[in-house]
Amino acid sequence: MKKLLSVLILIGAMTMAQAQTGNVENSRKVATKGFAEREVTPDIIYLSINLKEFYMDGNTKKKASIETLEKQLYDAAMANGVKKEDFTIQNVYSYNYNTKKKGNELLQARQYRLKISNLNNLDVILDKVDPFGIESTSISGYDHSQKKEIEKELKTEAVKDARRNAEILAEADQQGVGKALVINDNSSMNFNDLIPQPRMMSYAKAANDSAFESSGNGLNIDIRPIKLTCYIDVVFELK
């Protein structure tokens, strides 16, 4: 009895689904596309910094440890507004260093990730770290604090655009547009799919060095806006 009841429920569900599909396929409808775009400047930047141990002046008795370099970077980051939770170790590795007395020796290296809101203080942070201990720096990603709200607004604008396009087509045939029957979101608004390039602007050094230094910034780095696009396919009922 239970098996029979389950079969009847399944058949009923399939019949209803087919009926709904048939209603959409057989109804008078118009299919259009909606589009919306906006330029947005990321306000979250993920900075990757690689530090490595080294021997000062090649002296194997004077090693700059990874702990010392990490503390320099950490203190500089905290002093320039980076939150403790936004300073993380991303990777730990080692590399071979050849010495005449000891031969190959493994030195430590670490990769750090800093979450920051702009790059204006980047040179100030790095200036506090021994330059021989900095292996590389790069931008590993971008994001925006209001990303969900921006996506919602763009998708709303795209659906409205699709309806306007449908109304143009319907009016040409002296018809009206009813409710949306099908809405397909074909947009991809991942900030890391559209990586903006840093815009670096070096200030020209003034004849008076003290005037230049008093400005507080020898380098100003900006992030160019990126263009987010949203595409929506909509099928509307004609009435």
Mean pLDDT: 81
Instruction: Give the amount of beta strand, in percent.
Output: 35-45%
Would you list the SSEs in sequence order as H and E?
HEEEEHEEHEHEEHEE
Major pleated sheet = 4 strands, antiparallel
Shape label: elongated
Distance between the termini: 46 Å
Structural class, from secondary structure content? alpha+beta
Question: What would you note in describing this structure?
Answer:
Helices cover 32% and strands 39% of the residues. The chain is an alpha+beta fold. The strands form four sheets. The protein has a four-stranded antiparallel beta sheet with strand order 5-6-2-7, with helices on one face. The longest helix has 26 residues, at 147-172. The radius of gyration is 30 Å and the shape is elongated. The two termini are 46 Å apart. The relative contact order is 0.22. The model is unreliable at 199-219 (pLDDT under 50).
